Amino acid sequence: MPVQAKILSGVYSDSMTLMALSTKVNKLPGVEKAMIGMGTAMNKAVISDVGLMSPEIEAASTSDMIYVVECETEEMCAEVLAKIDELRTASVADQNQETSYRSLDKAIEDSDSNLVIISVPGEYAAAEARKALNKDKNVMMFSDNVSVEDELALKQLAHEKGLLVMGPDCGTAIINNVGLCFANAINEGSVGVVAASGTGAQELSVQVDALGGGISQLIGVGGRDLSEDIGGIMMIDGLKMLVQDDQTKVIVLVSKPPAEAVAVKVLEVAKGIDKPIVACFIGDTSTESDATENSANLHFTNNTLEAAKKAVQAAGISVDTDTKSYDFDYEKINSSFAKTQKFIRGVFCGGTICDEVFYILKDATDNVVSNVAKNAKDQLPVGATSHDNALLDMGSDEFTSGRPHPMIDPTARNARLIKEAQDPETAVILLDFVLGYGSNDDPVGAATDSIQQAYEAAGNGKRSLQIVAYVLGTDRDPQGKRSQISQLKDLGVHVVDSVVDMGNVALKMIPQ
Question: Which of 22, 34, 111, 394 has CB atoms 3.0–4.6 Å from 69's, for a disulfide?
Fold first, then answer.
C-alpha cells in the first residue's frame, strides 16, 4: 500500500493532544496505519518498525512534527494528510474556547486551583513543576522521561512545603472524587490509596468498586518513588495525608517491588497509624514477616486482587474470598497446539499489569522474560525478538518518548501482537484493555483488525492460537466495560475478570 508523509517544521503539540489526534486518524476510513508525533529518535524508531520510514522522516528534527499514513491509494493518503491538518486545527480551536493561557505563570495568577497537571516533554517538565511548587500548588506530573535528580529535588521541595508531587510518569489519581488522567469511574467510598504504579492503582480501584467498596482518595506518586534514589518521600507524605482525611477509613499502599530499605522505612511509618493498612508490593513477600511483628493494623499481599479484597473487608464489607473459576476447556486447548507452540506472550499497555503477570508466571516457571524484569537474566531488551514466555510492557518510557501511550494509540501494540502471532512458538497471547477517562474511546475496536490478523497468521501456519484478555474498567467508564467484553467474546477471545486471573488462566492453557 502507498505511504505518504508530511513534515511540519517548528510545529509543536503536547503529548495529550497528539494522543487524541492519533486515535482519531487511525479510525478514518481507508487508513491502514497512521502515526503522528514529534521527530524524536524514539518516534523514528517506531515508524521504522511499522514499515513507514522514509528519507524525509529520517531527516526531521526533534522540533518538527511528523504525519505519516499508509492507505489504500495515493489519493486517499493525500486526503488523510489534509484531514489531519483539519483535525489538528479544530483541536486547537476547541481548546481556545476554554479558558486558556500562554504560560503557567498566567494560569496560576488567574486561578484559585491548588493542583497543576503537567504534560510536556520530560526535559521541560521539571522546570514547570518547580514553578508550580514555588506558587504553593500541588503537582501531578503526567510527563515521563524526567531525570531522577530532578524528581528527588522536586519531591524534597514539595515535602518542605507540605505539598504533593504526584509523578513523574503519574498516569492516575482520584482527588475528591475527580478522576485525573487515566482514572476510572469509581464509586466514592472509604478506601484511600497511595500508589507508586498507574495501572496497579487502576486495577485496585476497579476491583474495590466491583466488590462493593469505593475510593476516598487515590494519590499516585510515580513508579520510582520507592526506589533507593527517591526514598519513598511522597508515599510517606501521601500516607500521612490520608491519615488526616476523615472519609478514609482504610489505606492501601500499592507498588511494584520497592527497594528493601525504603519498604522498611514506609512500613515503620505505617505501623504507627491507627487505621487499617493493606501493603501490596507486587510479587514481593520479603518484608512481610519482619513488618507484621507488633503491627496488627498491617495486612500484606503481593497482588492487587487480594489487596482489594483485604481493603474492602477492613472497611466492613463481606466478600467472597474463593478463587474465580472459568469454564474454559483446558484439555481441549492444550491438545490443540502444534508441537512448536510452547509459550505465553504478553503484549500489555499497563506496566503494573505486565509486572503482576510476570510474577505469577515466574512463580510457576523460571522460563520468563520481560522488559519490566529487575534481574538481568530475566530481561527482554527493547526491540528484541521474543523468546520463551515473554511479556512486554508497551507503555514503558522507551516506547512512549515523544509518542502516544498505547492506552490511547495502540498502533505499536497492535503491530507487536501480530508479530507474536506469527511466531511458531507462540501458544497463548495476553492482552489488556484499559478503560477510563483518558484512554482510547474504543480500545477493543482499535485492536479488532489486529486480533483478526493474529488469528489468521496462526491459521496460515496451521497453528491454533489462544488469546486471553482482561478489560480493566467499570460499566460507568465512557467506553462501557460490558460492551468491550462483548466485542472480545465475539472475536473468540477468552475474557477474564482480573489481572491475577489472566496469569493463572494462561498457565493452565499452555502444554505442560
Answer: 34
CB atoms closer than 10 angstroms to residue 504: 19
Q: What is the mean pLDDT of residues 376-397?
A: 90
Which of 469, 419, 431, 415 lies closest to 349, judged by CA? 431
DSSP-derived secondary structure for 257-300: SPPHHHHHHHHHHHHT-SS-EEEEETT--TTHHHHTTT-TTEEE
Grid coordinates standing for 389? 514466555
Mean pLDDT of the chain: 90
Question: What is the structure's pLDDT at 50?
Answer: 81
- From CA 7, how far away is CA 63, in angstroms rounded? 10
pLDDT band at 2 (very low <50, low <70, confident <90, very high): very high
Helix (H, G, I), strand (E, B) or coil at 487: helix
Joined together, the cell numbers standing for residue 43 give 518516534
Cα separation, 355 vs 459, in Å, equals 30
Distance between CA atoms of residues 251 and 406, nearest Å: 30
Indicate the burial class of 165 (C-beta count within 10 angstroms; 0-12, 13-18, 19 or more): buried
In CATH terms, is domain 3-97 a member of 1.20.5?
Answer: no
Write out the E strands in 186-245. Answer: 188-196, 215-220
Q: Which residue has the cell 496560576?
A: 108
Domain ranges within the chain, ordered by starting residue: 3-97, 104-314, 330-509
CATH superfamily of the domain spanning 330-509:
Succinyl-CoA synthetase domains (3.40.50.261)
C-alpha cell at 210: 466491583
> Side chain identity at 431, as an amino acid letter?
L
DSSP state letter for 162 = T
Give, as one character, the DSSP assignment of residue 322.
S
Residue 171 is placed in which grid cell?
A: 498516569
| CB 193, CB 235: distance < 8 Å | no
Contacts with 246 (C-beta within 8 Å, 6 or more apart), sequence order:
none
